């Protein structure tokens, strides 16, 4: 018995060690990004437009583009993914067709995003004549995002206990009502986590956007909110370089003297934005869950 | 329930009304012409900056400039999907370009120089030595008079304009052995700066104090030497159009070729203007004197 | 009499009419089904697109499939001694597999260890620290991973293991950090799915905590853990930008872990902008994408197989 206890101590100790090491790696990574990036941040950096080859450019336009593109992409992809996940989990019979559909969706999610980007380029930009635009980018991101989102929503539905489903049906509710009134509210926190995670991936995506939303960010007039004007921030038909694409571009071909500073500053901004997302969504998820389930 | 419906209805009507209002009051002047230029990432900053200046001076026009690579630019201009294809190469040098319709507009000259890590101890190579280094006949810097350190070759990607120019004029058409490949100048410079024994090649504008630019056969990589062709490793930057350009495309290309851009932006971005060159070189490498600056 | 029959008829009509709930049910079914159809259409479109472009290398350019899979020289622009283009993808396929398997080998113990810690030993700290941090890391763009790799990992590999620093080893380190969060959170899910009474029964029998974890929890969760690892491998296999920056992109057969090598994705992303649509060079790159697609199909089938085995037990 002594031996078992010793073994126990050693094993638990090494588990502490392993997780400590993992936390250390992850924290070092975040720390590295923040330490090298935070000194570059200033109000000017966050709001000024980028400069092609001179010092002192900012990332204001890129930052706005990233958020706008993310919101559009989410608006398009979330309802589709939700519908598909509900059908797959609640309605579809467990046969080879369903299984083939699931496999196909998962294959898509492990395709390199540059392939999705090129497909988007040939289809949306060239064929449908949308040009290099936010809209093309949002569609490409939707393609990239759908498999991930569908999968994670389906997983969320799975976490809701089968009892709740049976309870709903036993009360004489139809399947759709059960899903709508019982399952979805119960799954909200978990769905939200999935949405945040995929939002994070979308926010940091570069390769799929290089060929669709484009690599140039024309100056915007932030006083003009009419979506039909070319310099309006809301216009979905203008080319829009996002923050992640900007990092990629200045690292590869940037000739401004402060390229390195801009790139580490932008990385820090990205990480902080994702951090804020996480906190906001966690908070919202808790409140939403309380309202939906206790009401 | 019905009250909620009412509010929803009113909200929808308001939204539509707002949309119609926005559409009616849009800036009509901006609904003018727009053209798209796609291709070489190296050329993108120049065309983009020129485009911004042009649209600033000519209201109602929009020049959309995107990267994507020389290959993408040439295939899209061949297909006619865009108005201008930006290229680092002559179109006929690019495999897969068959169209005879493409019209070449040379807007800049770019000098390319071998760069090495600062600790390699080499300042000058002959063309033979450089070729030997890149073809793998020489594998240590000490064999060409440098420090005792293995040579690390970093190439640009296959099909890159910089690589094609470098192999054609720097290595007399020999092909580099298979080695590391990177697809952008910024990456190449960073890797050469941090890797002992590294050698690669970049455009003049990417040379900074983190790397050493090599002299070749005793000739320094300077703009003056490019102008009279003493430094052979240089190439044109091209804007291609499908057929003779018309309308806005024509005006914009004329603008880029005009002194307004050639004497300012082209120089600021580290290029030479074709107007400064004392010679002209065609796709086969044939050189003709053009008698000094025009 | 007459009145009664009409009321029966109206009652019949009323009963036969679909209730509001039933109508809603049909509506919901149709809406959710069409969403699924849309996704399937998207998937089929992309797969069909990649397949048609990738197969063109073999049909229109007449490259033999065998040469493609076993050749070691990758210079699609150049013809070899027999006048055939050099499109051997073997070195890249080997590179992709090596880097995927190595990073999975390193990441697995760390990920499962952390998941066990999060779930079995200190759930509180797990929920408060580990989970948010892992979720945060998923959102860091691969470009940023690549640059950290370039400025930290490559010099580290160079000074410790020699060589130029670029190579499979550096790629492995970067991928290890990239797949760690994914594998960890999926492993944690797998552990969470093990019923509570398994643990209680084992502890009640006098087993230590470690014995419970090792002999009961991990055994019960094995299919789930395997799925997590294979899923991580699939992600590693398809990762492009970060790997491309640290592996060196030399399409050579790897002789050692510190020599520059190439993966399918790194060659694909490096070359695609420099080639012309429809040319052999371009088609050959799409063939690489097709190989990637088929590989992720294989990974998926493996996951499925493991899942089925787990259910049977």
UniProtKB/TrEMBL annotation, chain A:
TM stretches of this protein: 12-35, 67-89, 101-124, 130-149, 182-203, 261-281
GO BP terms: phosphate ion transmembrane transport
Main localisation: membrane
Entry annotated with the keyword Transmembrane: yes
CDD domains membership: TM_PBP2
Highest taxon listed in the record's lineage: Bacteria
Recorded topology in the membrane: Multi-pass membrane protein
Annotated localization: Cell membrane
Gene3D superfamilies (alphabetical): MetI-like (1.10.3720.10)
Every ABC transmembrane type-1 domain range: 63-281
Gene Ontology MF annotations: phosphate transmembrane transporter activity
Key words of the record: Cell membrane, Membrane, Transmembrane, Transmembrane helix, Transport
Family that this chain belongs to: Belongs to the binding-protein-dependent transport system permease family. CysTW subfamily.
PANTHER family: ABC TRANSPORTER PERMEASE PROTEIN YQGI-RELATED (PTHR43470:SF4), PHOSPHATE TRANSPORT SYSTEM PERMEASE PROTEIN PSTA-RELATED (PTHR43470)
Protein name: Phosphate transport system permease protein PstA
UniProt source species: Levilactobacillus namurensis DSM 19117
Phylogenetic classification of the source organism: Bacteria, Bacillati, Bacillota, Bacilli, Lactobacillales
From TrEMBL, chain B:
GO MF annotation list: phosphate ion binding
Keyword Amino-acid biosynthesis: no
Superkingdom of the organism of origin: Bacteria
Keyword tags: Cell membrane, Lipoprotein, Membrane, Palmitate, Phosphate transport, Signal, Transport
Subcellular location: Cell membrane
Quaternary structure annotation from Swiss-Prot or TrEMBL: The complex is composed of two ATP-binding proteins (PstB), two transmembrane proteins (PstC and PstA) and a solute-binding protein (PstS).
Protein name listed in UniProt: Phosphate-binding protein
Automatic annotation (TrEMBL), chain C:
Record GO terms (molecular function): phosphate transmembrane transporter activity
GO biological process, one term: phosphate ion transport
Family matches, as CDD domains: TM_PBP2
Localization per Swiss-Prot or TrEMBL: Cell membrane
InterPro entries: MetI-like (IPR000515), MetI-like_sf (IPR035906), Phosphate_PstC (IPR011864), Phosphate_Transport_Permease (IPR051124)
Membrane topology note: Multi-pass membrane protein
Transmembrane segments: 26-51, 89-112, 133-154, 160-183, 225-247, 284-303
Any one annotated GO CC term: plasma membrane
UniProt keyword Transmembrane, yes or no: yes
Keyword terms: Cell membrane, Membrane, Phosphate transport, Transmembrane, Transmembrane helix, Transport
Main subcellular location: membrane
Residue ranges occupied by any ABC transmembrane type-1 domain in the UniProt entry: 93-303
SUPFAM superfamilies: MetI-like
PANTHER family xref list: ABC TRANSPORTER PERMEASE PROTEIN YQGH-RELATED (PTHR30425:SF2), PHOSPHATE TRANSPORT SYSTEM PERMEASE PROTEIN PST (PTHR30425)
Protein role: Part of the binding-protein-dependent transport system for phosphate; probably responsible for the translocation of the substrate across the membrane.
Protein family (similarity comment): Belongs to the binding-protein-dependent transport system permease family. CysTW subfamily.
Protein name per the record: Phosphate transport system permease protein
Lineage: Bacteria, Bacillati, Bacillota, Bacilli, Lactobacillales
